[in-house]
Amino acid sequence: MYQAHLKGKKHLRVINGRTVVSHCTICNMNITGGQEGWTIHVRSKRHRTTAASKGVSAVVDPVEGGDIAGQRFCDLCRTTVPDAAWGRHILSLRHTRAELYAKYRTALDEAEKDKNGVVIEGTLDFSVVEPTVAAVGTRCPLVVKCSLPFSKVVLLEANLTALQGKRNTKSVFSVTIIGDNRQVVSGRTIQLEILFQQSQIGRYQDRLELAFEDTQLTKRFIISRPLQAIVGNKADHEALSPKAPYIPRKRTQRHPETTVVEGVTPPSLNAIPYVGKLPRAVIPFQLASILSGNGASAQKVSHIRRVFMPATLDSDSYARHFKHLLWIEESKMETDLERYDIHDSTLTKHAPYYYLDVPGLAEKRPSVLVGDKILVQRHGADTGHWFSGGVHVVRQVEVGLRFAGSFQWTTAERYHIRFKLNRIPMQRQHQAMDTVFTQERVLFPTQQHVPSDSYPKAGAGIRVFNGLIATNRPQLQAVTSIVNQAAGAVPFVVFGPPGTGKTITIIEAIRQILHTNPRARILACAPSNSAADLIASRLQDGNMTNDQLFRFYAPSRFKNQVPDSLLAFTYIRPDGHFSVPPMARMKAFRVVVTTCVSASVLSGIGMARGHYSHIFIDEAGQSTEPEAFVSIKTMADNSTNIILSGDPKQLGPIIRSGIAQELGLEVSYLERLMARNIYDVQAGYGKTVVKLVKNFRSHSTILQFPNERFYNGDLEPCAERAVINAYIGSSYLPSKKFPVVFHPVTGKDLREASSPSFFNIDEVLQVKDYVQKLRADRRFITTDNDIGIIAPYHAQCLKIRASLRGVADGVKVGSVEEFQGQERKVIIISTVRSSKEFVEYDLRHTLGFVANPRRFNVAVTRAQALLIIVGDPNVLALDPLWRSFLNYVYLNNGWAGPPGSITWDPNVPVEEAGGYDRAVREAAQIDMNDFARRMEEMTLSGVDEEMDAGVDKPWRETE
After folding, report:
1. In this structure, what DSSP letter does residue 460 have?
2. Which range among 712-721, 826-835, 934-943 shows the weakest confidence by mean pLDDT?
3. What is the end-to-end Cα distance of the chain in Å, rounded?
4. Inter-residue contact 386 to 401 (CB < 8 Å)
5. What's this protein's family per the entry (predicted)?
C-alpha cells in the first residue's frame, strides 16, 4: 500500500507542489484550488449565467484540466500557461524538475516490474521489529522464479543501492544468494535471503537491485525492490498510531450572528471598582476587509503598510502604529478560535449552570476563563440566532454557563458551539495606547537623554541583602546603577542570559530602592502569572509584610491557582473573588506585583499617574510592546524610572498573526531598545544596561555552544559542581565527560484526524527508552522531577505523555515556551520532523519551528547536568544553526549513533547563509539521473550503438 501511495497522482502532486486543476466544460476554463476551488466556481454567478445562456444545467462534474483558447495545459506542472509563454515555461526550473521527476518515476516503475519471464516473490517489508530481535538480526526470504518455459536468463548479482556514495554509510540490510545456482529456468528457483540487523529505534530503507542477463539476446535488465523496516515496540506503535487519517480541516464560512441573546455574566466581572469605561476599539472596517480577503499574506502586508501604517515610527505615530498591529493580531485570534467550534454537542444541567464538555480545555486549546462568553445555537434554529452563555465555572474538561431565562434546554437537544474572543485584554492595551504619555526618553531614548557623568562604581553606597550578589560584579553593578539612577532617567536594562540570575538581581534592586528611599513606590510586572508569582515569592522571602507587598490577581482566577504562601498578600472579596482593597490601603503598599496587562487595574481604579517611582518589567522580552506599555503609559510621569530585565536572545512574545509579526509586533520593547546605540552592552555598561555573565545553571559543555553562538562567549560557568557533574561517567554518555548527547532517529512525520500538529512515534519510543533507563538506574539516581522533555509540536507532547503514563507520570512534557525560565537536571528534546520526501526539501516546512534560533537557544539551555537531543540529523542539518550544533556534538564524541548516521563531513565549516536544502535537492536529482542512466545502460546493453535515436524509447513507452 505504501509503495502504491507513493506512485499515486495525489502524492506526486503534493510533493511537487502542484495544485489540482479541474476543467469546466460549460465555461471552457481551468479551475485551480482543488475541490474547494471547484465548489466556489460552480456556485459563482458567472458559471450559472454561462450555463443558462447555453441552455444546460449548471450542475456539472469536473474533468481533467486541458487546453483552452489562448492557453495550454501542462500535465506535469498541473497549470495552464498562455500560448506566448509556453516556450519559457518548458525551460523553467519548475518544469524541468517536474520532467526529471517524471522520468525518475518512470524508470523506477519499470525497474520494479517483473520482466522477461522473471518473477520475484516475497515481501521485503519487515514491518515493526522489536529492538532485541533487530539487534540480533531478522531475515526475509526471497524467491526468483521463471514463468517462461524456454527462458535463458542468468542472475548476475544482487546489490543494495539506496545508500551508494553516502559518507561512511553502511546499510542495515544485507543480501545473500543461497547456493550456487544462478540460472533462472522453468521449474527451478533461486533462493535469496535479506538480513536486517540494527539495534537502534527508527525507520530504515534501502533498495535491492537484482541484475539479470538474457543470454540468448545478450541483454541485461534489472528488477528492483524496496526494503523497509521499523525498529520499535509493536504494541507502542499500535497504541500511538494515528486514530484516524489526517484530513485538513477546511474553514467554512461562518454565518454572522444577527441576534445574540445575552446570558448572565459572573459576579467576577464587577469585582473591581473601575472608575471609567473601556474603549470599544473596534477594528476599522477597511482593515478588517483586507484581513478577511483572499489575497496572499505578502500582498496584505504590502497593502496595510502602504495604507494604514505610519511611514516612520516616532512619538507622534506610536499609538497609531501599535493600535493597528493590535487589531491585526486580534483578527487572527478570532479566526484561530473558529478551529475550536463544536458542531454537534450536548449540555448537561445542574442549576443554575449548563455544563459543556470542551475537548482540549486542560491543554488551553481553547483557553477559557471565567467571564468569557460562549455562543450556543440549537440545531435547526435560525442561522443568525444565538444564545450567549457567560462562563461562571471552569473545570478540567468542562465549563459552566448561565443563559438568559428564555433559553430552552432538553437532554437530547444538540447544539452548535462558538467560542468568542475575550476582548478585554486588547481593549486594555488600546486604552494605554490612547494616553498622551509620549516621552522620548522612554519611547526613543538617545545619547542626549543619558547623563554625561560616569556610572557609579559597583557596590557604592549600598549594603547588599543577598550575599551572593556581593561576589558577582555584573549583578552588583546592575543593582548599584538602578538604585543610583536620577528620577526620570532613560529605561535601564538588565540583560540576563540563561541561568545568570536576572530575577535575583531585580529583587535585590527593589529591596535596595525601598531601603534607600522611604518614599519609593514600585510597580513590578511580568508577562505571565507564574513569572509575577516568582517576583512576589522572592520579595516575601525578603521579609516583606502584607502591609508592604500586594499581589494583584484578576478576578477570573481561582484560589487553587495561586500559591498558598501568596494568598496573604492578596485581597479577596466576601464572595470569594480577587479584587483590590480600598484606595487608601492601595496607596500604602510599597510594592504592587501584577501581570503586564492586569497593571491596567491601577489607572482603572483611579490611582494617580506618577504614584509609582519605579516600574519594573521582568521577562520583558516575552511581552509585546503594547503589553509592556500598559503600565508605563497609564502610570508613568516625567519622574518615573523604568527597569526592564530579560534576554532578547530567548523567546519573544507569541504572535498568532503572520501579518502582525511581519509588521513588527513580535519585536518586544526590550529588543527594540537593545537595538539602539545607547544600549550597546559595552558602551552603555552601567549607565543604560548591564549584561549578566555568570551562569549558575549548566555544565560548561552544555553552555559552550549557545554561549559562543548567542553571547559572544561572555558567559562564565559557575554552577554547583555536585549538580552539573551528576551524570559524568554514566552509561548514557558516548563520551563519559561530555554530558551532551545527540541520538539520531530516522522516523516519520505523522498527523491524525483534523489536527495539523506533527508527531513522530519513533522519537516518542526513543524518548521513553531514555526515561525508563534514567528512572531504573540505581547509581545515577533520577526522579521524575529531575527530567524535562521539550517538543516543538503539541501532538508530540500528547503522544509522549501518553507513552509515559504509568511509567513516569511526574515528568514535565511541554513546548519550549513552557520551559522558558525553568531548568531541570536532565532535558530531553524531541525535534520531531523527519521528512523523507526524496525530491522536494522545503526548509521552512521541513524544520518548522525547530529552525527558530531563539527556540533553539531556550531549549538547549534548560539542562543542568544532561542534555539529550533526539532527532533526524539529515533533516536538522538543513539548517546552518543545527548543523553547527550537530558538528559540535559529533566532534566532542557525543554522537549516540553509528558514524554513518552523519552523512556530511563535520570538519567542514558551516555555510551560515544556508542553502543546504538546495544542495539536498540537487543531490537527489543526481541520484535520480544516475538511477535512470543505469536503467538505460542495462536495457540497451548489446544494442547497436548506431541506434542511439531510440535511447529514450523505454521511458516514453511507460509514459
Report:
1. T
2. 934-943
3. 22
4. no
5. Belongs to the DNA2/NAM7 helicase family. SDE3 subfamily.
